[in-house]
Design brief:
Number of helices: 8
Number of strands: 13
Order of helices and strands: EHEEHEEEEHHHEHEHEEEEH
CATH class of the largest domain: Alpha Beta
Largest sheet: 13 strands, antiparallel
Oligomer: single chain
Strand order of the largest sheet: 1-2-3-5-6-7-4-10-13-12-11-9-8
CATH superfamily of the largest domain: Hotdog Thioesterase
């Protein structure tokens, strides 16, 4: 710890000592819990990653908790907009610097910068709001909210699909702290061209019993999972393929309700556009009861390489 900084105080449902915070893959809440390291400064642990880089959803979720650590008026984050600036290391902790830009009776706006080795890797703006009554409407879920049918479909696919037996991604996903059940595993994990629209059930693998701020951070973490692949589905490629260089460029979330991520939520995702080596994705989180609890969007880099690039016809 740098000289002159206070001893860490933790923002989260559970408190841990700085060097023993119980952060395991099964305990995502401990990974997302951040420690105060000074005025407007917070520290987050390293955590599980899908590849060699820091998982973007983790940086966003820890940033949410750091911003929540500066809140003293009962407000909760209702929206955030983040840009991934530099690749982060999966092995190193992340420092978060929170700046208050405005604060009123109802709303507050904060900027959060995620840093490793004095390099900004992610910059985020987050807006906070005190819940208040207002007009209501929402769109309905476009898929059946039947988690049992999705579980049966996944079990059948695992038992009979050659793709399931040969997919390292499926095996890695079983080690993630978020449990995933796709509506159609063949669409999500297969290699054939598909419509850019999918649905995935998600929940905590181990129940957390977390409070409202952490619940929103958990959803933020999950919102970066299985997302950017939507824009690739029509082109018969998937993240990790030698045919594409893929990474998230930015990420936005609007929280409509406080989720209970100990329970199942359906993440319905679609890609309305792709061109110029970029793809746009958007998604909607529905509770089991059909309540729309959050909306997310993301633009990703999907740069064709090798033979895939050779197949692309230049525009006139």
């Amino acid at each position: 710890m740098k000289a002159g900084l206070r001893q860490p105080a933790f923002v989260g449902q559970t408190r841990y000592r700085r060097n023993d915070r119980g952060a395991t893959i099964e305990n995502l809440e401990a990974i997302l819990t951040v420690a105060r390291a000074g005025e407007g400064c917070w520290n987050g642990l390293a955590g599980p990653a899908m590849g060699p880089r820091l998982f973007g959803g983790q940086a966003i979720a820890q940033g949410v908790m750091a911003a929540c650590g500066e809140e003293d008026g009962g407000r909760l984050p209702h929206s955030l907009h983040a840009y991934f600036i530099k690749p982060g290391s999966r092995e190193d902790p992340v420092d978060y610097r929170v700046t208050s830009l405005s604060q009123g009776r109802s709303f507050a706006t904060r900027r959060v910068e995620a840093m490793q080795a004095d390099t900004v890797i992610c910059s985020m703006m987050a807006s906070f709001h005190v819940p208040e009554p207002g007009f209501e409407h929402q769109q309905e879920a476009p898929f059946s909210l039947d988690i049992d049918a999705a579980l049966e479909s996944l079990a059948s696919w695992n038992a009979h699909s050659e793709s399931a037996a040969n997919s390292s991604l499926v095996e890695r996903l079983q080690k993630r702290p978020i449990e995933l059940v796709p509506l159609d595993p063949g669409v999500l994990f297969g290699a054939r061209p598909r419509e850019p629209r999918t649905g995935v059930w998600m929940r905590m693998r181990q129940p957390s019993g977390a409070g409202p701020a952490m619940q929103r951070a958990l959803l933020a973490y999950a919102s970066d999972m299985m997302f950017l692949r939507n824009a690739m589905l029509p082109h018969a490629i998937r993240p990790g393929s030698d045919s594409v260089q893929a990474t998230s460029l930015d990420h936005a979330i609007w929280f409509h309700e406080t989720p209970d991520f100990d329970r199942w939520h359906l993440f319905v995702t679609e890609s309305p556009w792709a061109a110029h080596a970029r793809g746009l994705n958007r998604g909607f989180f529905f509770s089991e009861e059909g309540r729309l609890v959050a909306t997310a969007s993301q633009e990703s880099l999907m740069r064709p390489r090798g033979e895939a690039l050779d197949r692309i016809k230049p525009r006139n």
